[in-house]
Every structure is written in structure tokens, then in C-alpha cells.
Amino acid sequence: MPPAGSALELRHELDERLADARTRTDEIFRILKPEALYDRPIAERHRLIFYLGHVEVFDWNLIGRGAVERPSFNEAYDKLFAFGIDPVDGGLPTDQPSDWPKVPEIQGYNARLRGEIDRIVREEDWSTRPLLADGLAFHVAIEHRLMHAETLAYLLHQLPLARKLPVSGRPQPAAPSVTTRSIPIPSGRATLGLSRGAGVFGWDNEFEAKDVDVPAFAIDSHPVTNGQFLDFLTAGGYRERSLWNDSDWAWRESHNVEHPVCWRRLANVPMQALRGSGHLTPRE
Asked: Residue 105 and residue 71: Cα distance in Å, rounded?
């Protein structure tokens, strides 16, 4: 068992990290106009209202009901915001806004969940709870919430500007200039995923482990910048067949895609004039 001091430090660290992760998802939801919570920006995905409850229910089902075995106080919500509303006959979702609870009801439910989780972080005896050993369940919950912060940002990119509220963003640190170079990677055998018998945590899509022979390749030393991607656009990258595999090219052709779907192109503005002009913007 770790010394009392380090156990208290771990609780304090997890408490702070969980609060920071909550702040990030809260900031994303504040971008939306209230009525936009019932929108479905991408046809194959849930309405945004699902995610308002989901990021809290995941914590509750994992930690509150799972690790600590607290009784449910709203089993219907525990299930609804864990799985959503399944589409009929395997097609696209057809649920309506009226099928979902009202926002104040979800917010009250979420507040109670957070209060219960906070008490478990700060006060619960972890010694007899295997999922809480070394803070495992809390690490998983925080990672899950931060992953949804990323996917929620992607979903919100698909919403018209009229459905969102202007907010002041966090100041971005100055990025140093870098020189990208190509790094050769030799051929070799790589293990992808995890083995279920290894006794380690993994998400459902990380199992089962698989060994793959990887041919030699090269990779850039830094991610693609916005400027480089714009150069790709202006050079006609969306029309260059050799840069696309068969299935992606078929998708591009069938949807007549000439730039990212969350951008819109103003009429009569040549692509070469876009750099620094602000004319290529999130769609409205």
C-alpha cells in the first residue's frame, strides 16, 4: 500500500485533472445555442444532446456504479446516455428531439453525478476497490472525456455558424518556426493492439493484438501546417487522382468534395487568393 502522503497526492492530482477535463467539455457545450443541442451535425452520429449526458454517465457507470457499486438513482438515464437511441433496421438514426429529455433535466442529473464522483475521488476508501487501485478508473474516465472533447470539436465544425455562440478562446502560445524533414523508417514487424490476457486496460477497439510486417517508409518530422494544407488545396490536391486510394476517391467523386466538408467557398474567389484572406471559412 502506498504511503498516506502519496495517496493523498494522487487524490489531489486526480481531482485537479478531472476538474480540468470537465472544464474543457463544458467550454465546448457553451459554444452551442441551447436549441442546437438537439441538432445532429453528422447523419451517422448521435444528436449533440447525447454527448451532454454521455461524458458524465461514462464516469458514473465506470466509477460510481462499477468500481464503488453505488445504486442507480435514474437507471433510464444511465442507459440512455451510455448507448443512445439505436437506429431502426441498421439504417441512419431517426430519433427526434422530442425523444430526448429536456436540457435542465439532464443538467440536474449531471450535477448529481459529478457530486457523487467528487466524493469518491476525495473521500472513498479505495483499498477494497480494485478498479480504483492507483487511480485506474479515474485515469480511464479522464482519457475518455478528453477524447470526446476532441470529437465534439469535430462535430461542432459541421454546424452552421448561426447555431453557435461567439466565445473568447484560450490564448494560443506562439509556435516556433520549424523545418520539416523526412525521417526514414526501416522495415520491421510491429505489434498492433493489446492482448486480453496481459492484464492491462484497453479500449474495445484495441483488442486483439496483431503482428504486422511493415515495409520501409518515410514520415515527416512535424505535422502538416494549415499553410501547407492550403498549398495542397491550391495545387489541386482534391482533384489529383494519384493522391487518393480507390474508396476515398469514389467518396470524393460521389459527394463532389473539393475541400474539407466544414469549409465553404465564397463565390468568385479564386483558390490562389485564399491565403491570409479569410475567404475560406467554416460553413454557414
From this structure: 19
Task: Report which of 48, 50, 51 is spatially closest to residue 33, judged by C-alpha positions.
Answer: 48
pLDDT mean over 19-29: 96
How far, in Å, are 71, 87, 195, 200 from residue 203 at the CA level? Answer: 25, 23, 12, 10
Segments making up each domain of the chain, as ranges: 4-163, 182-220, 226-282
Cβ–Cβ < 8 Å for 224, 243: no
Q: Which of 112, 265, 133 is nearest to 201 (CA)?
A: 133
Select 4-163's CATH number: 1.20.120.450, 3.40.50.620, 3.40.50.720, 3.40.50.12780. 1.20.120.450
pLDDT, tens digit (0-9, with 9 covering 90-100), for 154-169: 899 889 889 999 887 6
Neighbouring residues of 76: CB distance < 8 A, sequence distance ≥ 6: none
- Read out DSSP for 86-103? PPGGGSS----GGGS--H
Q: Find, among 263, 208, 268, the residue nearest to 233 by Cα.
A: 263
Cβ atoms of residues 152 and 170 within 8 Å: no
Enter the pTM of the model: 0.79
* Rounded distance between C-alpha atoms, residue 241 and residue 44, angstroms: 27
Instruction: Decide if 7 contacts 138 (C-beta within 8 A).
Output: no
